[in-house]
Amino acid sequence: MTGKPAEARHGQSAMPVAARVHLAHAVVQHLADGAGVDLLHLKGPAVLPDLRPGRRGSTDADVLVRPSHVDRFTSTLEAHGWEQRTEAETGSAFAHATCWWHDDWGWLDVHLSWPGCRVTAEEAFDVLAAPGATTSVAHVACRVPDRVGQVLVLVLHAARSPDKSDVEHAWRQSDDGVRTAVRALSRRLRADVALAAGLGELDDHRDDSHYLLWRFHAEGGTRLDEWRARLAAAPDVRARVRVLGGSLRVNRDHLRMELGREPTRADVRRRQARRVRRALAEARARIGRR
Amino acid sequence: MTSYAVAGDVAWVSREDLDSGEQPAAYVTRLPDGPPMVLEGPACVVWLAVADGGTSEDVVVRTAELAGVATEVVRDDVTRLLAELEAAGLVRSDG
Q1: Quick check: A22 and B6 CB within 8 A?
Q2: How close A160 gets to chain B, by Cα (Å)?
Q3: Cys bridge to B39: A277, B6, B43, B74, which one at CB 3.0-4.6 A?
């Protein structure tokens, strides 16, 4: 009768991904406590059980870090065997998260902000952390948004995902008091357009500069649609230039993960050629529809 | 008699929906650098018994009861496992 290391069987981890995610949350909270870093745990086992009934755990751990603590946090992660795999600028249209890997604990998404909130990331963190709620994950106390904050976070996440089950569980089953509080919180965080996108109420915000962006994420579209939406939401000229630069450049981080190795110049050139051909094909299709 | 408890710098989870096969499992690690450990079947029972707190004999009795065997069948193995878990820093004793 003995315990065995989690990687003992078949040369792979014997630990189910969901169990690994639980331990990852606990490990990361422990590291944050030691480094004096403020974190909020989001999604997966950090969510109140009744907000995600019947669902298996996430495949990665998600945390929101206080923006002013990011450098300290990432240094701590690196000192404990975590490797950063994507940059914030290339991780998503919202440039909001970095992706980390650890051989024992798997994937960790470190969110620098939560997409949909248009107040500063520091202010959003303060508001979401203010209730001081905690939940036990793997028997370690982890800081989380309170119920109202969790519902908002889940609906905002659903707003940019084809999977709307978060809305079903978190919003439709909440009582009127919670829903009213979530709407109030969304206004405080200037997240009302994103909330509307998650709830299927986006047409109430047709005149908002972020309308196209959220419609794209709610309904999908071509890459040109995405660019138009991101350009419309960019607050100034510099941001608009950055949007176009990012859109036209091959995402090396994603290419590295897809290939399973460092992309060569030839890989990038081939991928860039494919992107350009695809964009031209989309343009031709648009011209053909006129 | 020596009492055992889960050590303070340990994270662990054991739930039916996380079991990897037919057997119950507990996934256990020291914080923050691991390594992760899987305790399956009777070893999982021992872990849960330690988590509930009690003496080594309490752990032996609970393990035997859930395994459907006499206490003398598991006593030596349970005692050795407790010593291993303590040596690994996963449990602490007052002995």
Answers
A1: no
A2: 28
A3: B43
User: Would an 8 Å CB–CB cutoff place B23 in contact with chain A?
Assistant: no
pLDDT, position A126: 98
C-alpha–C-alpha distance, residues A250 and A137, integer Å: 38
Residue A285 domain boundaries: 250-290
CA distance A279 to A266: 20
- pLDDT (0 to 100) of residue A260: 87
Residue A266 in any domain: the answer is yes
Q: Tell me which residue in A3, A16, A139 faces B37 most closely, judged by beta carbons.
A: A3
Local structure of residue A51 (DSSP, 8 states): G
Question: Rounded to an integer, what distance in angstroms lies between the CA atom of residue A108 and that of residue A62?
Answer: 6
ipTM topping 0.95: no
Contact B32 A5 (CB under 8 A): no
- Residues of chain A with pLDDT below 70 are 1-13, 53-57, 88-95, 222-224, 227, 237-249, 276-277, 279-290
Check residue A107 and give its pLDDT: 95
Rounded Cα distance, A45 and A115, in Å: 21
**Dist CA B44 CA A100 (whole Å):** 30
Contact across the interface for B42 and A1, Cβ inside 8 Å: yes
pLDDT tier at B92, thresholds 50, 70, 90: very high
Q: How many structural domains is chain A composed of?
A: 1
- Residues 35 through 94 of chain B touching chain A, CB cutoff 8 Å: 35-40, 42-43, 46, 74, 77-78, 80-81, 84-85, 88
Which residues of B fall within a CB distance of 8 Å from A81? 33
**pLDDT value, residue A224:** 60
Q: How many residues does chain A have?
A: 290
The answer to whether residue A277 is domain-embedded is yes
Distance (Å) from the alpha carbon of A178 to chain B's nearest alpha carbon? 29
Q: Are A157 and A47 in contact (CB under 8 A)?
A: no
Summarize chain B as % helix, strand, coil (round to 5).
Answer: 45, 25, 30
The encoded tokens of residue A96 equal 């909001």
Sheet with A97-102: strands ordered across: A39-42, A61-65, A106-111, A97-102, A83-86
